[in-house]
Amino acid sequence: MGTTIPDPVPEKITSWNGRLPSTGWENEFMSALEPFPEATPEVAADDAEPTLPEPVRQRVTALAAAALPALPGEEVPVVLRKMARFAPNRRARLAGTAIAAQLTSDPLFRQRIGRRVVEDAGDLGAAVAAGMAPAAADPVEIAAIAYLSRPDGWRDLLADAGAAVRAEVDSAAVAEQVRDAEQRAARAEHDRAVAKVEADKLRDELARVREEMGQLREEHRATARALREAQAAQKRASDLLSTEKGRQARVTTDHETEVRRLRSRLADAEAAAATGRAAAKEARAADDARLWLLLETIGQAASGLRRELALGPSDKLPADYVADVAAERPGTPERSRARAQDTDDPARLDQLLALPRAHLIVDGYNVTKRGFAEMSLEQQRKRLITGLGGIAAQTGDEVTVVFDGAERVHGLPPAPRNVRVLFSKKGDTADELIRQLVRGEPSGRPIVVVSSDREVADGVRRHGAYPMGADSLIRRLSRS
After folding, report:
1. Residue 107 resides in a domain
2. Is 363 a member of any domain?
3. Distance (Å, rounded) from C-alpha 479 to C-alpha 125?
4. Which terminus of the chain, N or C, has less C-beta within 10 A?
């Protein structure tokens, strides 16, 4: 046919530009599509490849893909040998472009495929190979077989098939337009019916709206009358409010004037009171100076009288002599037990704390281990300090609680007012710190020491303090 063919069976094709995933069987397909030098056949103008309608092109690819496995292995181009093992549907879908390119560039391959297609088509293939086109046959099928077998007049068969395909397309387009027109007509008729119904509804709605408008006009006139009356009442109320505001302003002015006058009198009274307090303070200072001078004179006189009479200093009070005499009398164990019971009496503790400027000193762990032994040391300290805070608040006395410890224990609650918490230093005990506190107090001040330690009680008693047992304080705390 005047076509120069560079190679009967080319090993590479150039028209495949697709991209497929490179996994599984697709790797075989990708390896089959390696680029190869493009063949440039010299084709005459009359023998140029025709442009196939899309249905014909798809049918040509499907027929060639179906006939490809039937060819002997040596007749299949190298580039299509791996694709020949694909399933029919997969082969037509994935290898269609490569098959079409091979059909265009390899006339010998096309002839082999054409013979196989004619044989598979039976009577229709024989008729097409003879150059005839049965009237009842599918024009697309006729055009595809004619393109592959290329009998005499195959271009005319392609042209007739293209015309038939275009006619079918035009007929389908006309039918589609007719269906669209019928559907639009049906929709228009339906829209007219709906519009008629809507128009009737709108007429009824218009009548109802007109009736409501009449009612609204009547209500508007009534509302306008009520508004005018309300405006007149508001004007009267505004006038009355202005009058009341003027009267209130006058009353406020008079009140502010009276307040300023009273404040002036209060300032004068405060100045007079400050002057009186200053004078009273000066008088008290003078009286205190005179009293101090009197006491100092009496003390010096007493000292001189003691020296003159050669009287020794007295370390005991009369009550101490009475207590010593009572201790020498028979029945001492019973009296000692009575005194021990007296030291555990909370009423006796209350009497001692009621003395003026009394100082309560508590042996901390001695009390907590007798009263709260089941608690931890931290909880014992917290409970005792909290209870002592209540006693200090009730009596107003000074309270000191002493614990054994080389250094201050962390985590203590804030000490209540008038309550001081002390810890013995390293190398000292709480008993020694209690004795130091008692010795440091001025002579004559009531000092109450709470401890069940007999040695502590005897030691503080020698310095004029009142020892009380731990049970008295525990019972006093439980009572409060």
Report:
1. yes
2. yes
3. 124
4. N
Q: Read off φ and ψ for residue 145, nearest 5 degrees.
A: -65, -40
Question: Do β-strands 419-423 and 466-468 pair in parallel, antiparallel, or remain unpaired?
Answer: unpaired
User: Does 19 map to a domain?
Assistant: no
Contacts of 146 (CB under 8 A, 6+ apart): 128, 154, 157, 158, 161
Strands 398-403 and 419-423: parallel
Alpha carbon of residue 172 to chain centroid: 64
pLDDT, residue 401, reads 92
Please tell me the distance from the alpha carbon of residue 279 to that of residue 262, in angstroms, as a whole number.
Answer: 25
20 — phi, psi (to 5°)?
Answer: -125, 155
Which of these three, 110, 136, 152, is where a domain ends?
152
Q: What are phi and psi of 413, to 5 degrees?
A: -70, 160
80: nearest Cα among 60, 100, 62, 63: 100
E strand or H helix that includes residue 354: none
- Which pLDDT belongs to residue 478? 86
The pair of structure tokens assigned to 221 is 């006139």
> Do residues 157 and 60 make contact, with C-beta atoms less than 8 angstroms apart?
no
Q: Which domain holds residue 374?
A: 342-479
Give the domain-ending residue among 127, 152, 177: 152
Note whether residue 158 is domain-resident.
no
Predicted confidence at residue 228, as pLDDT, reads 94
Give the total number of structural domains in the chain: 2
The enclosing domain of 459 has a CATH number of: 3.40.50
Q: Which of 170, 172, 173 is nearest to 162 (CA)?
A: 170
DSSP symbol at 70: G
Strand partners, 363: 402
One-letter amino acid of 460: V
CA–CA dist 403, 5 (Å, integer): 119
Cα angle: 437, vertex 439, 440; to 5 degrees: 65
- Dihedral (C-alpha) 15, 19, 20, 23: value to the nearest 10 degrees? 110
Q: Cα(269)–Cα(255) distance, rounded to whole angstroms?
A: 21
Among all chains, which residue has been given the structure tokens 């310095």? Answer: 463
Residues of the chain short of pLDDT 70, as ranges, are 1-47, 68, 73, 78-79, 81-82, 84-85, 87-96, 131, 135-136, 285-286, 288-293, 295-297, 299-300, 302-342, 406-413, 480
Mind giving me the DSSP string for 113-145? HHHHHHHHHTHHHHHHHTT---TTS-HHHHHHH
